[in-house]
């Protein structure tokens, strides 16, 4: 499998490419120097982009299992956070404590907090 860096090392630097290609009689006789430079610059960029696309297509098959593992992991994390939320909310019921309400500011329940965090996770 090729990396973009190794492939790009095999492509001539743009200056060399421009020098060699602009000497072609098919271009030299028909276009002005600035037109040739723009044409060759765009051609070089297209070649770089094509190489990038080819590498991404080649690497896609190895990316699929990684994406599936990450998706499965996120699903597990979401379940664990939801379980933690349920356990946090059950603590006051199982271990009641007398608290002077006047000294405590109102706070959302842990369950609501964790549920709001996990609501942003979408696992499809």
Rounded to the nearest angstrom, the radius of gyration is 30 Å
Mean pLDDT: 76
- What would the principal axes of the Cα set say about the shape? rod-shaped
Percentage of residues in DSSP E strands:
under 5%
Distance between the termini: 30 Å
Question: Explain this structure to me?
Answer:
The chain is an all-alpha fold and 124 residues long. It has one domain (4-119). 74% of the residues lie in helices and 0% in strands. It has helices at residues 4-10, 14-22, 25-28, 33-94, 110-119. α2 (14-22) runs antiparallel to α4 (33-94) and α4 packs antiparallel against α5 (110-119). The longest helix has 62 residues, at 33-94. The protein is rod-shaped. The model has no long low-confidence stretch (mean pLDDT 76).
Précis, in short:
With 124 residues, the protein is mainly α. Helices cover 74% and strands 0% of the residues.
Describe the protein's topology.
Layout: H1 4-10, H2 14-22, H3 25-28, H4 33-94, H5 110-119
Key descriptive features of the protein:
124 residues, mainly alpha, rod-shaped, 74% helix
């Amino acid at each position: 499998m090729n990396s973009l860096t190794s492939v790009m090392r095999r492509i001539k630097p743009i200056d060399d490419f421009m020098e060699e290609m602009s000497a072609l009689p098919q271009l030299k006789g028909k276009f002005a120097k600035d037109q040739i430079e723009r044409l060759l610059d765009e051609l070089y960029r297209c070649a770089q982009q094509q190489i990038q696309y080819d590498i991404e297509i080649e690497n896609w098959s190895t990316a699929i299992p990684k994406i599936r593992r990450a998706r499965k992991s996120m699903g597990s994390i979401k379940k664990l956070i939801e379980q933690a939320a349920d356990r946090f909310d059950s603590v006051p019921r199982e271990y009641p404590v007398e608290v002077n309400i006047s000294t405590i500011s109102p706070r959302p329940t842990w369950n609501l907090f964790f549920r709001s965090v996990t609501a942003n996770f979408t696992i499809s």
